[in-house]
Give the backbone structure.
Amino acid sequence: MTPRAKRGRRGAALVEMVVVTPILLLVLIGLVEAGQAGDFAIRVASAARAGVQYGAQNLSTALDNSGMQSAATTDADSSAVTAVASHMCECANGSVSASCLPSYCSTSHQVVFVQVVTTGTMPSLFNYAPMPASLRTISITGTAIMRVAQ
């Protein structure tokens, strides 16, 4: 093989490397972004579970929406996570009420459920001004519902 042919192949390898490197870096950044989003989704879902576990202890904690919200946000350990707690009652005959008054289910047993919905927003690795706002942050929601021990 002539020296001129060897130089031509070395130049081709360099061109290939210049073309492939940005693509590989983009894939690597995408994998890191997916890993961070997965970790954040686990934290948001765990926070929702912590909130309903607090509320499902007994009837008095089930009616403490602010306590459930506090338990959820404390578990998330991030100011980017917010929580909304609620409770609902269902009679054994299937009718549903949000008030949970003891007199609501006078003819059947009352079952109380608590629900916590957590929402977290994390900044994307692609958080650049030219990018659309929808691509600069990732919003993740977690929901947990549990029956209250009675």
